[in-house]
């Protein structure tokens, strides 16, 4: 009886320790979650407060103003907003086919083996290369190639511009959608694919009718992650986009993004309104990213519920 009592007390003590540890762990997670919300809100509040001089002086004209001239104290963010959207979405259009192809290749055709390991390491290396290296590569390799293409198309052979920066961004964002897509494809239950093969489906039919419908929410999440990465990229885009405040006429024209303008001019802003206008660019970029993520989350939820 005494031994059973001792054992019962030990089990009860262990149970209490486990409950206490789980309670502490839950509290830590709650604190971390609240801290993340506080950090995001503090960033937003800081941007709003620092942007107030520009907001009071310029108002909503700031968003659709087509002229950015700090010397004349005129600030219009429309060329940079357009440049950001053009480069990001054009890069997304270019990168998505490659991302999905890599995801299917690694997730379905070669899930293991030296070929798979080599390609996975290569894709991970693409994500690990610093953006300034992509900028140098773009100047040395991509810009001359784009210049040759522009000569053939009869466009001014500038080389640097929206299209060049979109190509660089496309290479940079491929790993995000490809890695998440590969993970989602490998999570497809084997019985689903085996049942389709048993009914006489080809591999392409299995990919199209079983794998893609099962993984569409994850695939779209990877695309959304890639878009978020493209919207905020600064250094590589700054080096190849041309850095002009003029409104781009086409995808081959030089331009600027909101991030590249901030990087180029922030240290030169010696006027309070000028500095506030640059900070307001950061606020606009922040809000654009939030809106696009909200739209993407809504679409993912709709696809998941279908």
Q: Please give the largest β-sheet.
A: none
Average of per-residue pLDDT values = 83
Percent in helix? over 70%
According to DSSP, the number of beta strands is: 0
What shape does the CA trace take? globular
Termini, distance in Å?
A: 60 Å
Which residues sit in consecutive blocks of at least 5 with pLDDT less than 50? none
Order of helices and strands: HHHHHHHHHHH
Count of helical stretches: 11
Radius of gyration: 25 Å
Query: What percent of residues are in strands?
Result: under 5%
Class by SSE composition: mainly alpha
Q: What does this entry look like structurally?
A:
It is a single chain. This protein has 306 residues and is mainly alpha-helical. The chain is built from 11 helices and no strands. The protein has helices at residues 2-58, 61-64, 78-109, 114-128, 131-153, 162-186, 190-198, 203-232, 235-240, 258-265, 272-305. The termini are far apart.
Nutshell version of this structure?
This protein is mainly alpha-helical and 306 residues long.
């Amino acid at each position: 009886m005494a031994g059973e009592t001792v054992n019962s007390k030990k089990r009860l003590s262990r149970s209490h320790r486990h409950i206490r540890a789980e309670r502490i762990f839950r509290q830590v997670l709650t604190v971390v979650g609240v801290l993340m919300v506080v950090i995001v809100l503090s960033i937003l509040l800081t941007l709003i407060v620092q942007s107030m001089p520009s907001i009071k002086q310029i108002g909503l004209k700031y968003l659709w103003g087509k002229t950015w001239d700090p010397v004349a104290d005129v600030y219009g963010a429309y060329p940079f907003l357009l440049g950001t959207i053009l480069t990001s979405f054009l890069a997304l259009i270019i990168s998505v086919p490659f991302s999905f192809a890599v995801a299917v290749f690694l997730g379905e055709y070669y899930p293991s083996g030296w070929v798979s390991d080599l390609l996975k390491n290569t894709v991970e290396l693409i994500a690990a290369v610093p953006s300034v290296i992509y900028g140098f590569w773009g100047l040395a390799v991509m810009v001359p190639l784009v210049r040759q293409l522009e000569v053939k198309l009869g466009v001014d052979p500038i080389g640097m511009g929206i299209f060049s920066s979109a190509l660089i961004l496309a290479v940079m964002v491929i790993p995000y959608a490809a890695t998440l897509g590969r993970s989602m494809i490998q999570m497809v239950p084997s019985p689903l694919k085996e049942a389709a093969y048993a009914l006489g489906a080809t591999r392409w039919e299995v990919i199209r009718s079983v794998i893609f419908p099962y993984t569409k929410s994850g695939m779209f999440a990877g695309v959304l992650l890639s878009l978020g990465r493209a919207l905020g990229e600064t250094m590589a885009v700054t080096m190849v986009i041309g850095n002009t405040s003029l409104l781009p006429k086409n995808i081959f024209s030089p331009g600027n993004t909101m991030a590249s303008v901030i990087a180029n001019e922030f240290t030169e802003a010696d006027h309070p309104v000028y500095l506030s206008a640059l900070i307001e660019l950061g606020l606009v970029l922040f809000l654009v990213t939030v809106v696009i993520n909200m739209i993407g989350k809504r679409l993912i939820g709709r696809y998941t519920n279908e």
